[in-house]
Amino acid sequence: xxxxxxxxxxxxxxxxxxxxxxxLSPPGVEFVGPEAEKAYRExxxxxxxxxxxxxxxxxxxxxxxxxxxxYYAGTTLQKVIYDYDELRRAWLKYLHEFDTDAFxxxxxxxxxxxxxxxxxxxYRWPGHGLSPDVSSYQFAEGxxxxxxxxxxxxxxxxxxxxxxxLPRVFGALVPFREMSPxxxxxxxxxxxxxxxxxxxxxAAFRTLLAAGEAMEKWQETVAEVSQAAISSGYPxxxxxxxxxxxxxxxxxxxxxxxxxxxxxxxxxxxxxxMARITPLTIxxxxxxxxxxxxxxxxxxxxxxxxxxxxxxxxxxxxWPTLKEVVLALIDEGIVPVLFAEGSYNQRLEIVRDLPRATxxxxxxxxxxxxxxxxxxxxxxxxxxVPTSLxxxxxxxxxxxxxxxxxxxxxxxxGYILTGGAGVDDCPPDNLRAMMAAVKEYGVY
Length: 444
Description:
By secondary structure, the protein is α/β, with parallel strands linked by helices. It has one domain (7-441): TIM Barrel, CATH 3.20.20. Helices cover 51% and strands 9% of the residues. The longest helix is centred in the middle third of the chain and has 33 residues, at 199-231.
């Protein structure tokens, strides 16, 4: 489909078709050969047809290889977050030795030098708060926004982030508390510039510059691996990242305890804050999608699961602003990937209210048979080979589980086989069993 209109004149359907076209024919990509280009187009076509609830040639499969490439290559997470040569080697080895329909570049292997240099307090990682042999990060939840600070966040989110939130989550940026709001610059800049006379404020900025230089090296490695994957015929699956407004407040600002109390003690402020954050969330996600030729944006859903809140609370606090984000991304032609962590068995009828064939619902522990029954006619489904199965079962058991998922969820199209969550140090043959399953049982 060739479109000659200005972007603002396109309908949401036309915008999506344009994004899908760019995904299928990525600009500026030089494939290693005609076979790689052919394989790339076949893989992307599988995803496009699944998203549109059509039957592709077979069920697409995304191996849930989170930090698995590091351990498969004989190294560790602690090693690759500091040694980018090792990071490159491990992910390229995985690229060349595993068959999958989409490749995850190591963008989630965060650079340890950057995090440590800024004294980042939201994560612990191997060798920094965790034992060196731990195979993942740990989120250090806390109350980084106090209950009486809603008004400050609502009034000026950028100022709150810069002068309140960042100094709490980055030890190196504590001096930012002394900075003046940018709005103090009316004509004469001296009041705004006065804090920069402080040695500690200037030192904080020098630390940020050093972190930027370190981050540049990490970005070059991630980009190199990503380009190698695409050139070899393996598409990327996510262009960016967004969160439910409730989760933005609940994960890293108020914390779980704080946000749960706020639903009872200050619901109006909570709603007002989510309304303030929603358009900022949309804008950020669109910017990331526009910078890529991949049309999908990942939205991990943390606190909306069955075990976190009641159905009434989900309908009142969680779904309305999340739905607003999702619909705005759909209007921009973006395909939201809603990663329903935990179980969403009590949410399926509620979240069905989205335009047909516009999103991917990626399930972790949800009953896939019921998900197919409720959502299968309106949304592409993905999931949910259990992580426990991939770690402990035989390849034969993994393949059999995948067969059952394909028979239930792959019926009529609109299904992507993948894990319920990412894996790290699991038996390699169990991942290979997933691909064997779609090739044997997932052909239409």
